[in-house]
Amino acid sequence: KARAEAEDEAERKKAEEDARAMQASEDNARAGEEARLEQERKARAEAESEAERKKAEEEARAQQASEEKARAAEEERLEQDRKARAEAEDEAERKKAEEDARAMQASEDNARAGEEARLEQERKARAEA
């Protein structure tokens, strides 16, 4: 009887030991799985963060390019305005020079006509005398 009790006790202890070992193995497996899932979550978060960073950089580059294009267009418009103003000023100066030349010519023509009329008067006066 004592041997049977000792065997039962040994079997009970072995069953408890086996149960503890099984529990420890399950705990280790669960901890390993949780660690693996945590690593996956971190990797996904890092990948999303990197994708967002790249997208933000790309948007910043696009914005920069758009601003540079607008600035270049504005500079081109200002240059065209400057050229048009310079051409208009040149044209106004050319017209004024032509106008001055015509006025000078008219003045000379008037002076010549007056001189010719004076000389004609003198000639008539001499002829009469």
Molecular structure report:
The structure is a single chain. The chain is mainly α and 129 residues long. Helices cover 98% and strands 0% of the residues. The protein is built from one helix and no strands. The longest helix is centred in the middle third of the chain and has 127 residues. It starts with a helix and ends with a helix. The model has no long low-confidence stretch (mean pLDDT 96).
Question: What's this model, at a glance?
Answer:
The protein has one helix at 2-128. It is built from one helix and no strands.
The percent of residues in helical segments reads: over 70%
Topology order in helix (H) and strand (E) letters: H
Shape field: rod-shaped
Which structural class fits the helix and strand makeup?
Answer: mainly alpha
Rg over alpha carbons: 55 Å
The pLDDT mean sits at 96
Quickly count the helices: 1
Question: What attributes characterize this protein structure?
Answer:
129 residues; mainly alpha; 98% helix; 0% strand; rod-shaped
